[in-house]
Amino acid sequence: MSMNFDDKINPEASALIAKYFGDKADQVDDRTVLLDTVNLFNQKNMKEIANAAGQPVVVELHGEGDIKTLSDGTRYRVTRRGWVRLDDQEDA
Asked: Where in the chain are the domains?
């Protein structure tokens, strides 16, 4: 799963993400959070994060093998063990 923001994630939203998702959340850039093996999340927590961020949060669900490309071109692939950063030379 990933959480995507239009603008930079502010410290308040980052703190809530850490509170609700802990070490399963990896903020890979200033607008994207990749989440590993999140079993449950609820609308109330997501609303609180969006309100703290002052912007909408887009949640994407990903399956094994899916690739997420960030705005800087960095790519990550979902594996059974979570997200893995792909090297520039590695084929999609």
From this structure: 2-62
Q: Which residues of the chain have pLDDT under 70?
A: 37-39, 88-92
Is the C-alpha dihedral spanning 36, 46, 74, 77 positive or negative? positive
The full DSSP string for 54-92 is: TS-EEEE---TT-EEE-TTS-EEEEETTEEEEPPTTS--
Average pLDDT, the chain: 89
Q: In what order do the strands lie in the sheet with 2-5?
A: 25-27, 32-35, 2-5, 57-60
